[in-house]
Structure formats: C-alpha cells, structure tokens
Amino acid sequence: MNQSSPLHATFRTPEKGLFISFEGAEGSGKSTQIQKLKEHFDSLSRSCIVLREPGGTSFGEKLRAAILNQETKLHAMAETFVFLASRAQLLEEKILPHLALGGVVLLDRYVDSTLVYQALARGESIEKIWTLHQFAPLNILPHRTFYLDISLEVSLERQLKRGQNKDYFESQSNDFQAKLLKGYRTLAGLYPERIKTISGAQSVEDVFRDILQELPHL
Ligand code: T5A
C-alpha cells in the first residue's frame, strides 16, 4: 500500500495520545527498549501502558499460547487470522480507550509483524494483509514504529543465549529468519516517515538514545 493506493485512505493515526509500536526479528531487543521507554514516560508522569502481540487481553493471551505452542506448520492465512483476532480485541479493549484518554501506548509488535512474517517472509503480497486491515478497529496506524535492525548472526546468538525452548516461529529455518530481516528492511524503505530504523546491534544505552531522538512530540 502506498500513498496513491485507494486503500491508503481507509487508514488513520489516532487523534489523541501517542501510539508507538516496536518491530524486529527474534531477539532484536524490543522488550528491553520498551521497558526503558516506559520508565522515561513514567518519569514525565505521562500515563503509559505496555502491551504485546499476540496477547495483551485474556482472549489474546489464549491465542498467543495456541500459536506459539503450535508444533506443525500452519497455512500463512491461518496464522494471519489468529494475529488479526488478537489485534482487533487488543485495539478495542486496551489500545483505543487509552489513546482516547490522551495516554501513551507502547506495543511490542503490530501490523508490520504480520506484513513481514505472514506476507514477505512467505513470498506473499503485502496488499493482501493491508486489505484485511482496512476494517475498524484494525485500520489504525501508530504515530511511530521503531524497527530494531540486527543481523541474522546477532538474532541467532541472542536466541541461543536465552536458552529456553524454541517457540513456533523461533523453530523456523534460518532461511525464514533471513527473510524476516530482508522483509523488515523492505518495509522500512516503503514507509520511512512512520518506520524509523535503529541499529539494534548497538549497546542498550545507544539504542535507547537513538529512539529518544526519533520520538514524536505528541
Ligand atoms: N508474530 C507476531 C507473527 O508472526 N505475526 C504477527 O502479526 C505478530 C504480532 C511473538 C512471535 O509471533 C510472531 C513473531 C514472534 O515470533 P515473542 O515471544 O513475543 O513471540 O517474540 P519476540 O517478539 O521476538 O520477543 P523476543 O523476546 O524474542 O525479542 P525482543 O523482545 O525483541 O528482545 P529482548 O528485549 O527480549 O532481548 C532479547 C535478548 O537480547 C538481549 C536481552 O537481554 C535478551 O537476552 N539484548 C541485548 N543484548 C545486547 N545488546 C543489546 N542492545 C540488547 N538488547 C537486548
């Protein structure tokens, strides 16, 4: 979807509050940075909530457990509808009400994860995923998306260090994981105003400094 696509007109950013999503491959450091940004907003006494996808609601957490514990490969569309169901409920129950009060929402993964994991990494068109998002409440875009860019080597090294059992997506081939990185870079190139690429291979402090520099003043 680009600016000239008729689909583009069906999407909007929230009028109130500040909506920020974080994206990246496995182990890119999203949760680490989200925690730091939450502390930043807390220090400013700004009401800020942290949410994750899939999950964030009691229904969404059930879907999260179902997909991450899945042992055999699903069709990309089956995966897509699980993420969309979780997302729609999260928007309705948590994200939109908090933004309407003028609050800050920090979200670990959002629509770009579906565009990359279920479309680009599987060789599907991203138009299909955008089309599914044109219906409320899914037609909301964040004010800012931080994409934490790391190499395949760093991603695999961090997953190994963590040492816990691999989930459904972590168990996919290295080829799939390389496609994720390529997919994210493609997406960041398509939507440079919303998606800011930050090198996730830097120290935690340096990544955070770069994030603060790109934070919208809303
Ligand atoms: N998914 C999700 C889809 O396929 N489609 C969708 O639409 C959606 C929404 C979710 C899975 O679902 C898929 C994508 C995912 O595979 P998840 O458990 O939430 O699963 O997985 P991730 O989001 O990938 O979470 P991770 O915990 O793996 O990664 P994070 O949050 O990016 O990384 P973080 O902060 O936990 O850090 C990982 C490790 O690296 C260290 C940390 O200490 C930690 O050990 N670290 C650093 N080390 C050195 N330098 C730094 N700068 C570091 N930052 C962090």
Short description, anyone?
The chain is α/β, with parallel strands linked by helices and 218 residues long. It has helices at 30-43, 58-68, 76-100, 111-119, 126-132, 152-162, 174-190, 204-213; strands spanning 18-24, 48-52, 104-108, 144-149, 195-199.
Overall geometric form: globular
Percentage of residues assigned to helices: 40-55%
Biggest sheet statistics: 5 strands, parallel
At CATH level 3, the topology is: Rossmann fold
Strand order in the sheet with the most strands: 2-3-1-4-5
State which percent range the strand residues make up: 5-15%
Mean pLDDT across every amino acid position: 95
How many angstroms does the end-to-end distance come to? 25 Å
How many beta-strand runs?
Answer: 5
Bound molecules: P1-(5'-adenosyl)P5-(5'-thymidyl)pentaphosphate
Count of DSSP helices? 8
- Radius of gyration equals 16 Å
What structural class do you assign from the helix and strand content?
alpha/beta
Question: Descriptors for this entry?
Answer:
alpha/beta; five-stranded parallel beta sheet; 48% helix; 218 residues; Rossmann fold; binds P1-(5'-adenosyl)P5-(5'-thymidyl)pentaphosphate
Structural features, described:
It is a single chain. The protein is α/β, with parallel strands linked by helices and 218 residues long. It has a single domain (6-213), classed as P-loop containing nucleotide triphosphate hydrolases (Rossmann fold, 3-Layer(aba) Sandwich). It has eight helices and five strands; from the N terminus they run E-H-E-H-H-E-H-H-E-H-H-E-H. Helix 4 (111-119) crosses helix 7 (174-190). The radius of gyration is 16 Å and the shape is globular. It starts with 17 loop residues before the first strand and ends in a 5-residue tail after the last helix. The model has no long low-confidence stretch (mean pLDDT 95). Bound molecules: P1-(5'-adenosyl)P5-(5'-thymidyl)pentaphosphate.
